[in-house]
Amino acid sequence: MSNVVLAFLLLRSKRIMSLNQNPVEKKRMRDENTARGCVIRNLQKLNQRIAELEYTKAELKRVQELLRKERETFFPILHKAPYGIALIDNDSKFIYVNPAFTNITGYTLEDMSSGRDWSHAASPILEYRQEIINSRERDVIHKGLEKIMSIICKNGEIKQIECKPTLLDDGRIVVILSDITKWQRSDLACST
Fold this sequence. Notes:
By secondary structure, the chain is of the alpha+beta class. It contains six helices and five strands; from the N terminus they run H-H-E-E-H-H-H-E-E-E-H.
């Protein structure tokens, strides 16, 4: 052992021996040891909390990376889909429309969310949303509640739209729109 360690041990043993004789010093040492133990326990708890936070931070990074990858995969699918797609929340507000929706109806998400005079065009879709919600109890939505409706596009054109809804677990509805105006006109022309 080094001289420093031996000197420390010697001083410590002398101090302990003197404690046995001095009750005030004994109490001070007990209080010191109690305080030291409390500090050590607090440091251990702090270290444990730091480890938990580091784990949480690592888990958050992992989840964020998964979310980023999912967005990179699914957003282009929605964005480039040949069908109009609208996501309608529980308050009948449009929260997403893809470019095909805008191509079919002429309305953008900004038009839908700004409260401009698009309601006459969207009202069939919103009424349809309520019909979908009402049919939830009959379990029709899971079998597919498709509907053909007329809507007035932003440019004033009237189109026949086939709507296919999907009810999400949280009550929001995804509606897929197909413009079937040309097919209906050709069917009408063929039948006359």
